[in-house]
Amino acid sequence: TAFLHGDLQETVYMKLPQGYLGKGFRFGQKYAGDNIASEPRKVCRLNKSLYGLKQAPRQWYAKLSFALTEKGYQQSKTDYTLFTKKDEKGFIAILVYVDDMN
């Protein structure tokens, strides 16, 4: 679910999925390929990242790295997936792999 939390930096549109029923459609009207009954093809504008979107991993990582550096973590200069924080309480290391943190 991590990729769903990224913020899009550009405008992205997508074709409506097959079987979509929603706002702007008459009840029971079904999407069939590129034609919705006699209406022209419809698309939707994405407000957030979705699975399968090319930008999703990058946008999630940008949001995560910003949040960690705001909390005082330092990003390694040799391994960008490693974030560390040292204070009087001890040392914390966070290693990010795709959408998992260890």
What do these coordinates show?
This protein is an alpha+beta fold and 102 residues long. The protein has one domain (2-101). 15% of the residues lie in helices and 24% in strands. The chain has one helix at residues 56-70; strands at 13-15, 43-45, 74-75, 82-87, 90-97, 100-101. The chain has a four-stranded antiparallel β-sheet, with helices on one face. A two-stranded antiparallel sheet has the order 1-2. The longest helix is centred in the middle third of the chain and has 15 residues, at 56-70. It is elongated and about 60 Å long. The two termini are 16 Å apart. The model is unreliable at 34-38 (pLDDT under 50). Keywords: Nucleotidyltransferase, RNA-directed DNA polymerase, Transferase. InterPro entries: RVT_2. Residues 1-101 form the Reverse transcriptase Ty1/copia-type domain. This is Reverse transcriptase. Pfam families: RVT_2.
What is the strand content?
15-25%
* H/E element order: EEHEEEE
The average pLDDT is 78
Name the shape in a single word: elongated
Instruction: List low-pLDDT spans.
Output: 34-38
For the biggest sheet, the summary is: 4 strands, antiparallel
Euclidean distance between termini CA atoms: 16 Å
Jot down its keywords.
single chain; 102 residues; alpha+beta; two-stranded antiparallel ribbon; elongated; RVT_2
Secondary structure blueprint with pairings:
Layout: E1 13-15, E2 43-45, H1 56-70, E3 74-75, E4 82-87, E5 90-97, E6 100-101
Antiparallel strand pairs: 1-2, 3-4, 4-5, 5-6
